[in-house]
Amino acid sequence: MPSLFVLNSRGATLQGDTLVLTGVSPSSIIFADRPVRSAGHQPTVDVIAEWGSGDDSFAKNPPNATVSALGKDGLVKDAVVVLKTPKLEGDKLTFNVQILEGDLASADGGAAVFIDIIGRPFTPMSFAGVARRSAFRGAMYAGAVGAAAYGATYAPYAYARPACGYYPYPPCY
After folding, report:
1. Domain covering 2-116 assigned CATH 2.40.10 in the classification
2. What is the pLDDT of residues 60-96, one digit of tens each?
3. pTM
4. 10-to-7, 30, 155 alpha-carbon distances in Å
């Protein structure tokens, strides 16, 4: 389940309620949060094409994003925005935005847009996601207690689960 999209470009401008990314990479990076912890790529045209898909699409519930661009002074310029109505034309991507904070004044270098999808109903940190996970865990723990009670009377030795999933241990599969 993806939890963060990253769109890379050669440049970004933010004027009024319009964000323009030029030289957009044809491939967007997608990260998945725990427990999967994976990363991959999706064509940027597909990310934009799916913008309005689903009951809780980005079109209905616009995502927050941080736009980070390199400035003329060598410093990173950041703006936090709400992304609305994308329009992709070749390698130019335009969004209507609501600026929450920051600006991209004097930014003339490469840029990255970090799109946070946390808070949508099918993401882990949303209310629905937490409720769904809690219900699943309740059923899972109840089953585990029953299995442990059964196993305690049957198993001649205890089995310790190997350490995994947290630094410095490898991920659990």
Report:
1. yes
2. 999 999 999 998 888 999 999 999 999 999 999 999 9
3. 0.67
4. 11, 19, 61
